[in-house]
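for the writeup, i need someone to sanity check this before i put it in the appendix. the sequnce is what the collaborator sent (i think, or maybe the updated version? ugh). structure was predicted straight from it, no edits. if anything looks off just tell me and ill rerun, i have time this weekend
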Amino acid sequence: MENLKIKIGIVDDDLLFVQLLENYINSHEGYEVVSTSTGGHHFLNETDTDLPDVLLLDLRMSNGDGLEVMSALSQKSAGTKIIVLSSFYRRSFMGQMLKMGAHAFLPKEIEMEELLRVINAVYHTGHYFSDEQIEVMRSQLSNKLPEFHAFSKDALTEREIDVLKLVCQQLSTKEIADTLFISPKTVETHKTNLMIKTCVKNMAGLVIYAVQNNIVDADEIVLFDK
């Protein structure tokens, strides 16, 4: 049986950048660019039903910026993982990007090989944080980002807290299932319940919730192994 490929979409108004990135990604086994768009409006209009697994998204574009795309996908409850890839990168924007629905936030200057590793990490674990971004989160999360006005950690079940802690260790659904001796389907149910109870939009939001509510320490968050 043919190996499944990670389906990738690219939204960027720099056509040369899109073509170079598309050619590089398609030259590697396990990845396939299934859509390219020159702006946010074009992407939302053309790919309303067949969304990619991972979306590489620029922030500043003339035909619908990245924030519009993230907002629209959030309202659709789409399963697409979003990697914001922007020349307008600032580490201090990390928290805001996560709140908006991004699963990773990267500068365009990133090495192509490293980008593939991030795509793989986001696809399998739901989020990616670099060492520098973790340092920013450690210093800013508790004090500068708004608290989640949702359920307290006491409202989470013991099993949900177990799952949440393992999410923060970047374990995949299967790895969490094996660790807790439950089925992958049950893990996905717990993840869904966690997002409903905490009012977050993705796995990255769950990590922030866990840090802010002292369920895990920021030092315990496992980084993607470079």
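Residues 184-198 form the longest helix (15 residues). Residues 61 and 149 are 32 Å apart (CA to CA).
thx in advance!!
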